[in-house]
């Protein structure tokens, strides 16, 4: 059974971790969650409140990480998922995290990123010449990294499938699963 790696950390967007995790399990993939260390992670829920100029943040679910970034052997995984939230802001500073991300792009394996996950791709230097969706506030970083920001619910550019935020989940995961079925099918 092909394995998919979700790379995340504390303050990741709750829905952007748990929805792909469960959806990929449903498809028959084995899914590991990697983080800076093996521990119980605390996710957050971002929402939009009338009168606020930006999103609000509340505590979300907690979830155990399966493996630390330093121990990840990316060759053992068929695909990568990078959720958003605030986690990518600090994960992009972790050399093992960047090593993992770069591996998937070098090997042209399927990658799904959403929301602030684009910050991690920019830091890894893999957006040059690519089209990607992201949370609109990340558009400047996408452009500075040589990418083209696309304001759409599911953008497919080669091995990269991206979306703006959790309201785009159905289109985002539909496109990612279609790519996985071609590039890393689950054998019955």
TrEMBL record:
Coiled-coil regions listed: none
Pfam families in the record: DJ-1_PfpI
Gene3D superfamilies per the UniProt record, alphabetical: 3.40.50.880
UniProt domain DJ-1/PfpI: residue ranges: 3-178
The organism's place on the tree of life at top rank: Bacteria
Homology family: Belongs to the peptidase C56 family.
PANTHER family: DJ-1 PROTEIN, DJ-1_THIJ_PFPI FAMILY PROTEIN
Protein name: DJ-1/PfpI family protein
